[in-house]
Amino acid sequence: MEKGVPIRAISRAIAALKAINRQGSLTMMEIARSAEVPYPTACRLVQTLVYEGLVEQEPDRKRYRPTAMVQSLAYGFQDDDRLVEIARPHIVSLTRRIGWPISIAARVGRNMMLRDSTHANTALTFERYYPGFTLPVLDSASGKLSMAYTPDEERETLLRWMKVSQEVDPEYLKAARAALNVERIRSQGYAVQGRNHHNLTPGKTASIAVPIFLGEYFKAAMTMIFFASAMKPEAALDRYLDDLKGTADMISAELTQAAVQNHKG
Fold first, then answer.
1. Residue 162 — pLDDT band, cuts 50, 70, 90?
2. Are residues 63 and 100 in the same domain?
3. Mean pLDDT, the chain, whole residue set
4. Which of 58, 166, 229, 234 is a good FRET partner for 66, with 20 to 30 A between their CA atoms?
């Protein structure tokens, strides 16, 4: 096996389990569609998940749901709640000043996972987004920012995985990779997505993301989401970039200080 290449069968099984866990209960056809696998493959994957005790068939129904054993997969995970705890008052305050919703997201695999947002704190939004919502790393402002600050070797490994997994269109991946200007994003300190296509209202919003650091290391992306029809990204940058960077800097400073104090304690 080529170095750094994921095992396709495991990737598919994880995709099936994530689909079932996300929806709560699915038919076999729905699992195949959500996991983007052929129906016969979905059947074999679900049979394996049932055998391992992670999925069960509902009584008298041809639907499958996660079991309590799924919770055991998270037993060893230690989340850093300080990020949300420290960032929350800052992003709420920023939304009050500028009106637009702000989100905090961190990369998990090939997706950006929402950790917190202020969509519920403003009327300037089409939808509300909650922790756990994911966006693709190559087609979101937060994802582009995260990829730019990811160490070169790790970024190349991730891109290689995406290429060989056959779950991402090769032409799209090639174009997205070519458009990812790592040096420019790092030097400017922000990333832009002119149209957000993978959210709940495709094409209706745009976004600007700035980095949050823990010491010298990239920790998360702070993103402002605005109506694409309201202004062009260039106008949004002129109007809001300084405020965005200032808020992210304050969060970074407090996050770093808290980590130092915790280490001393």
1. confident
2. no
3. 90
4. 166
Domain range for 45 is 8-73
pLDDT in tens, 46-92: 999 998 889 999 887 889 999 988 877 776 665 567 999 999 999 99
Domain harbouring 139, CATH code: 3.30.450.40
Collect contacts of 136-140 with beta carbons under 8 A, ≥24 apart: 136/110, 136/111, 136/112, 136/198, 137/107, 137/110, 137/111, 137/112, 138/162, 138/173, 138/176, 138/177, 138/180, 139/176, 139/193, 139/197, 139/198, 140/112, 140/193, 140/196, 140/198, 140/207, 140/209
For 157, counting Cβ atoms within 10 Å of its Cβ (0-12 exposed, 13-18 middle, 19+ buried), the class is middle
Task: Tell which of 73, 100, 130 closes a domain.
Answer: 73
Q: Band of the pLDDT at 7, cuts 50, 70, 90?
A: confident
The answer on 87 and 66 residing in a single domain is: no
φ, ψ of residue 222 to 5 degrees: the values are -105, 125
The answer on pLDDT for 246 being more than 50 is yes
| Domain co-membership, 182 together with 55 | no
The H-assigned helical ranges of the chain are 8-23, 28-35, 39-51, 82-98, 141-149, 152-164, 170-179, 182-188, 233-264
